[in-house]
TrEMBL record:
<protein>
    <recommendedName>
        <fullName>Lipocalin-like domain-containing protein</fullName>
    </recommendedName>
</protein>
Length: 93
């Protein structure tokens, strides 16, 4: 959900693409689109400032992008792009 209009919503049902992230213990994240691995890259979790406020947040960095970890628990991961007009990603386990 997001974009310049702020109301673009893409779901697996609307796009026909199911996206999945798989994090490994050796610091890699594998990105899948509808069951096919599209890339496997190193990731880093760190503390840092965001565009949203001047506080430190947990950040996920991979594939040249920095995401704000907005929420994480046993069943879901919510990431936000760390730039204006970015997207909000909700991954379910």
């Amino acid at each position: 959900m997001g974009s310049i209009t702020g109301n673009s919503v893409e779901t697996p049902t609307s796009t026909g693409i199911e996206r999945k992230l798989v994090f490994t213990n050796d610091g890699k994240v594998m990105v899948y689109a509808t069951g096919q691995e599209t890339r496997s890259v190193a990731y880093e979790i760190k503390q840092g400032k965001t565009i949203f406020d001047d506080l430190d947040h947990n950040l996920l960095v991979f594939d040249g992008m920095t995401y704000v970890i907005s929420h994480i628990d046993a069943s879901s991961l919510i990431l936000d792009d760390n730039f204006p007009d970015g997207y909000h990603f909700h991954y379910k386990r």
